[in-house]
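Let us work through a complete example step by step.
Step 1: write down the sequence.
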Amino acid sequence: MKTKRLISCLPGFVLCLLPVLMPGCSSAFSVTAPEGHTRYYLDHNGRERTFLVYKPTGWEGKDRFPLLFCLHGGGGTDRGMMALTNGRFNELADRYGFLVVYPQGIDKGWNDGREGDHSTAASENIDDVGFFRTLIHELKKKYPVDEERIFTCGISNGGFMSNRLACELPELICGAALVTATMGREYASGCRPAGGVNILLVIGTDDPLVPWEGGPVQVLGQERGEVLSAPEAVRYWVEINGCDTFPVIEHLPDHDPHDGTTVTRYRYASPDGSKRVELLEVKGGGHTWPGGRQYLGERLIGKTSRDINACDLIWEFFSR
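Step 2: predict the structure and record it as tokens.
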């Protein structure tokens, strides 16, 4: 375990005393870095920000590393996101040679651009886009980052934030994967990234928090804005990326017939193949990370698909 500071930062020990049962969460934020990770701190706009970096083992001679951001959901933590995914991205990093970065949101949340979101990050208009711009700059100074292969993924609030990064940092972000997330309805009109960005959406049809059909989002009685439906979000990115509107459809194997889910993949591509949009429709799936932990009961968040592992398919999408 290592702890480092990239920029002089404010003193203080951050500890959240109350458990928050949301995707990508643990019972409390911990300043301790897990084995094999390095925790960094930096100041951004007068706030101390922190993130974990996992550098793959066995790739010491590699010249350039792809970079993957993995964003927790609202109420979550960086370590909790690692736990939700069962550390699968780290395993893939060791196999394929890429950096994994788990950032921590302000008060366990991200300012993902949704109007009507009453989280701390949104209410205080935290400049999370600027934070990621600075974070990429600092990581490039510390690690040999492949600038042509910087990706982001996240669940729920972290997925919406990944969408915002794709919209506002297309010169830096090469691809984004949104799990149980689409796009804020009001925000959508301003999302016009020059050149487009490859987008993967992983959406459950029975998500009780972020409805497949779109509309208002409410979490534990707190308003979190209105969102596009899954089909609307797909059509939006298909248009932005100049993709053919007729997808290639693939019904993926039902590896676990007892999990109550099946998965269909819809692939869209631009005529020259340079831009892509994909949807993994998890029929029967809830507000969950396929192949990850069932972090709350099915009555609260719905089912977790065991037919796919979202981490594997996300990295496969980014690797193409």
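Step 3: interpret the result. The longest helix spans residues 128-142.
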